Fold this sequence. Notes:
This protein has four helices and five strands. Strands 4-1-3-2-5 form a five-stranded mixed β-sheet, sandwiched between helices.
Amino acid sequence: MISNLLYISNRNKNCTDLEIARILESCQRNNKGLDITGVLLYSYTHFVQYLEGEYKTIIELYDKIRTDERHRNVAMITTGQIDKRIFPSWQMGAKKVESSEIKFDTDISENDVQIFNETINGYGDNKAIDLMKKFFK
């Protein structure tokens, strides 16, 4: 059964944009073989990542991600079974956002802004997954 997982974390200061490029290269190289898809939002201070795949596979990947020294305070927001993938052909899409004053250049309501701010601060629920879709229209 296909499942999803959404987590947030704090980006360490020593995690440069070059390191982000390495993360994305690794995702694109490895995720296809693992049948994992998803997206990564990142800023100078945070990561928000959404993963899709077989439950056991994404949990094993999450356990590995949690120990990565490029971030800290990793917190799972939600995980569960899904009927179909949101990002079926993306081994890992990515978008950089500025954290403090995020200017949303997409269809986003005031409620969506609140959900995003709750998610980036470690709170949230399944509404955060719907919000991730809007970032990658």
